[in-house]
Amino acid sequence: MKTYRIEKPKIVIIGGGTGLPVILKALRNESADITAIVTVADDGGSSGSLREMIKVAPPGDLRNVLVSLSDMPKLYEDLFQYRFKKEDEFLADHSVGNLIIAALSEMRGSTYEAIQILSKIMHVEGHVYPVSEEPLTLHAKFKDGTLLSGESKIAKARKPIDHVFVTNSENNELPKASRKVVNAIEEADMVILGPGSLYTSILPNLMIGEIGEAICRTAAEVIYVCNIMTQKGETEHFSDAEHIQVIHNHLGQEFVNTVIVNDQEVPSEYLNASDDADKLDQVTHDQVGLEEEGCSIISTDLIQLRDGGVYHDGEKVVDEIFKLLKVKRS
Asked: Any signal peptide, and if so, which residues (predicted)?
């Protein structure tokens, strides 16, 4: 009797921030060959201070992605994610995981190697790659002609952004993609962008020349998971179509095949929740605008309300991804 092996779909997901781990955690429960490509342009908080002190790629987003794909016991996860108290002086606000990644990066002389070692130790399901093997600096050119450098500073300016670009933080040259990243994109069945901050979590990855080119030429279905809420200093008053327009304009061509958007109304008490909140209003839906960008549209309820905020429900997003995958494979 012959037995046939059904190959797992190769799914590449690109981004950073809090949105990426939500989708990855749900995706880990499915039968898929997962590759996470993670931004290294963060220069705020614990990640920012470590990249300055030790000259390593910022570890925070990588830490959260490792945890989302790991099956380690809850106590180990809690220890890895533990953040020292503000009154702990030198260690204040640093997470144990960030310190471990920084230490292993220094020991091996490479954040890329550190992440591969930790992936084995933490029993990670899939592959985790920093988008570049060197820390990156994000630059924003605003529509008033001014320029600002530093991921943590850009949104605070609260000015309309014309475009962003990245440079290698060490020598200010154009950055290169990490090893295996381009091949993963080219060989994927699906490439997923987002959810995450448009200008500071998604676009920094696409602005590395080799990566932008690979995404434009891949035969994979390219999916954008649109944010549910607009973000202060980045996408204020944006529609879903405007998110896609910005992405396409940055790469100079239409390459996103499908957009997954939320169609459930956000309760009014979650809108403009506080003066210091980074999320403002609900992203408006522009069906015509998305169609003009050449995108197929999947609209459904994606909302999860928790901890006083509005988040993507990872299970719902992944369910839509696999429905689409089934259609594409039939």
From this structure: none
Residue 328 near residue 276 (C-beta atoms within 8 A): no
Which residue in the block uniquely carries the two structure tokens 């530093």?
150
What residue spans of the chain are helical by DSSP H? 19-27, 45-54, 60-68, 74-81, 96-108, 111-121, 151-157, 181-187, 203-206, 209-217, 240-251, 287-292, 314-329
DSSP string, 187-198: H-SEEEE-SS-I
* Three-state SS letters, 31-94: CCEEEEEECCCCCCHHHHHHHHHHCCCCCHHHHHHHHHCECCCHHHHHHHHCECCHHHHHHCCC
Express each pLDDT in 203-227 by its tens digit: 999 999 999 999 999 999 999 999 9
- We find that the CATH architecture of domain 10-39+131-329 is 3-Layer(aba) Sandwich (3.40)
Q: How confident is the model at residue 93 (pLDDT cuts 50, 70, 90)?
A: confident
Alpha-carbon dihedral sign for residues 229, 11, 183, 117: positive
- pTM of the predicted model, to two decimals? 0.93
Domain ranges, ordered by start, for the chain: 10-39+131-329, 42-130
Using pLDDT thresholds of 50, 70 and 90, give the confidence band for residue 1: very low
